[in-house]
Amino acid sequence: MEFITRLISAVIAAVIASAKGRNIIIWFILGFLFEWIAPVIVLIIPAAKKRRVFPGRGNRSDMRWRRGVSGTCPYCGSDVIIDDIPGKWTCPDCGRSFIYGEDGRFYRIREDGISRQIGLITTLFARAAKSDGVVTEDEIAQVDRIVRGAFRPNHQELRRIMKIFNESRYSSGRVEDVAEQLYRSVAGRRDILTDTLTALVAVAAADGRFTSEEETMIRSVAGVFGLDGVYEQIKAEFFDRAGLRESGPDLASCYRLLGCSADDSNEVIRKSYRHLIKKNHPDLLISRGASEETVRKANKKIEAVKEAYEQIMAARA
Q1: Do the Cβ atoms of 244 and 209 come closer than 8 Å?
Q2: Rg of the Cα trace of the chain?
């Protein structure tokens, strides 16, 4: 009978010890030797504290859990502070990911191909060149010069970049979405975004003209970047240096906008113009319950239609 009592006390002590993170075997023996005293003691004492250590670092006291480890981003050189957790981290300044190793060092991630930022910038180059409907050889050459000078890609990377450029020329996605992705990818760094705007203007004007379509596209990107004022400065400085002037859409684009052809009479063109103005008139849209965004787009459409009509009539005078 005494043996059974001791055994029960030992089991109870071991169960309680296990729940509190204590050594099960030791408390089983103590329970067997001291009977009910051992379960009472292990029930009273606090649970054991766990030390958090990293795999492969051993259990030395200097390897305990730490927070606020400081280091240098292996890409931009900025000072970063992270938790002492080996793995992948992102620099808050340049937006690039790096590896914090178990040895406490910061490493670059070995990348296959080109970075996401370069891909997004290249996509914007393509959209800027294509925004007026035609990608010229001068614009392609300008992109090539910018890519080689800014990114310094090897032969394979350059081929990949130009492939992205060619594919993006036919993309139907919103350019604002691409700009937003780039903004987030570089964590809103003004220097990178400003350089991107400068390059976009250079690409768009590489063929010697800066159309209203190109202006609209790049201005929308500047709006996403939050650099509207900076964009105006870039454009003014670039135009002053290059001796360029903004040009409206070419006649072919004007005819397409009005839904006419160069063979149509002035009367046909005038009727089409009046129809488009009436169709997009804000008062009409508001009376039909159109949203503010729809009305805003309609006003822009009216401005474009008027400009196209005036340019056609001026060319026919």
Answers
A1: yes
A2: 34
Q: How far apart are CA 298 and CA 287, in angstroms?
A: 14
Binned at pLDDT 50, 70 and 90, residue 250 comes out as low
The tens digit of pLDDT for each residue in 124-157 reads 999 988 887 778 888 899 999 999 988 888 888 8
Q: Which amino acid is at 261?
A: S
CA torsion sign, 200 to 205 to 207 to 213? Answer: positive
Q: Which helix (H) or strand (E) holds 211?
A: strand 210-211
* Largest Cα span, the chain: 121
Return d(Cα 260, Cα 310) in angstroms, integer.
14
Q: Work out the average pLDDT over 272-282.
A: 88
Which domains are delineated in the chain?
Answer: 2-44 (no CATH), 66-108 (no CATH), 116-247 (1.10.3680.10), 251-316 (1.10.287.110)
Residue 70: beta bridge partners? 81
Round the average pLDDT of the chain to a whole number and report it: 80
Q: Is the predicted pLDDT of residue 272 greater than 70, yes or no? A: yes
Lowest-confidence pick of 102-106, 135-139, 229-233, 241-245: 241-245
CA 196 to each of CA 87, 142, 147, 161, 191: distance values in angstroms, whole numbers, following the listed order: 31, 13, 11, 15, 9
Cβ atoms of residues 73 and 105 within 8 Å: no
Res 220: pLDDT: 93
Query: Sign (positive/negative) of CA torsion 50, 56, 62, 67?
Result: negative
CA atoms of 306 and 227, how far apart (whole Å): 29
Q: At residue 108, what is the residue type?
A: R
Residues 6 or more apart in contact with residue 38 via CB below 8 angstroms:
9, 10, 13, 27, 30, 31
- Which residues have a Cβ under 8 Å from the Cβ of 224 and sit 6 or more positions away? 176, 179, 180, 183
pTM equals 0.47
Partnered with residue 71 across adjacent β-strands are 80
- For tokens 């400065």, the residue is 233
135 closest CA partner among 258, 144, 160: 144
Amino acid sitting at position 40: V
